[in-house]
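We now fix the convention by which a protein and its fold are recorded. The integers have meaning only within a learned vocabulary of local backbone shapes. A complete example follows; check for yourself that the lines match position by position.
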Amino acid sequence: MMYKQIERNKRHTVFIVAGFIVFVLAVGAAITYLMAGEIFTGMILALVLGGAYTAMMLMSSTNVVMRMNHAHEVKDGSEHRRLWDAVGNMAMVARIPRPRLFIIKDSSPNAFATGTSPEKGAVAVTTGLLDQLNHEEMEGVIAHEVAHIRNYDIRLSTIAVALVSVVAIISDLGIRMLFFSRGGNNNKHPIMLIFALVLVIIAPLVAMMIRMAISRKREYLADASAVELTRNPGGLAQALEKITGVSQPVSEASGASASIYFADPLKRKTAQLFSSHPPPKERIKRLYNM
């Protein structure tokens, strides 16, 4: 069942990326339609920019994300033996290579995984998590992050982050160019003109909502996968209760990578539509029902 879900994840990655690319092309087309009454130049520019940015993110995502969150790599188990063993054990049960391990010096408990494939996976844990969680709870969190790597969630998240950034860049450029534009081609259809203008303005918001929806769905699957690895839903549920019960945000966390954390590191109280994580109560309820 779980392997079917992983395969479904991979297929969804293709569909979501294809849909996202169409959306990026539409935004590029809308900008040049507003500027000059034609769409092809904008589509080509959006395709080139989107392709280059996404490729760059995929090639360097792990190191970039770790630097953004001020994470330092742990090379062996001499400093954090309990954590080192937990990561190795969960990777072995999940049948993936041992992920690289990083520590973030921050008293707020949290963790995240990154990497575009199991061979390039990495897990980062805050010192607060090591200090405040018992072995069962920490193992549950590590299993959740290892599950993200095994399920190829991180590759999808990386692509989504890159495409959201591209949409924001071209939308911002388009609005600035429109502000200084003198009108250009006047043979524009009024309805198309309004549609293009609205699309350019709301594009960053729509892209962000797509990204958040992707992130929320992956959290439930990672929770279920973690229980499959540990056979202990209580450990993960208790960890979730402890981590979400802490009001102190992760000060070292980057807002751009907040969606990949185990729980929202910024402790924002946003509407569900704009939230990067499912409601903790719903996650805990599902875990106790397993």
Observations:
- The first helix runs from residue 2 to 36.
- The mean pLDDT is 85.
- The first strand starts at residue 71 and ends at 74.
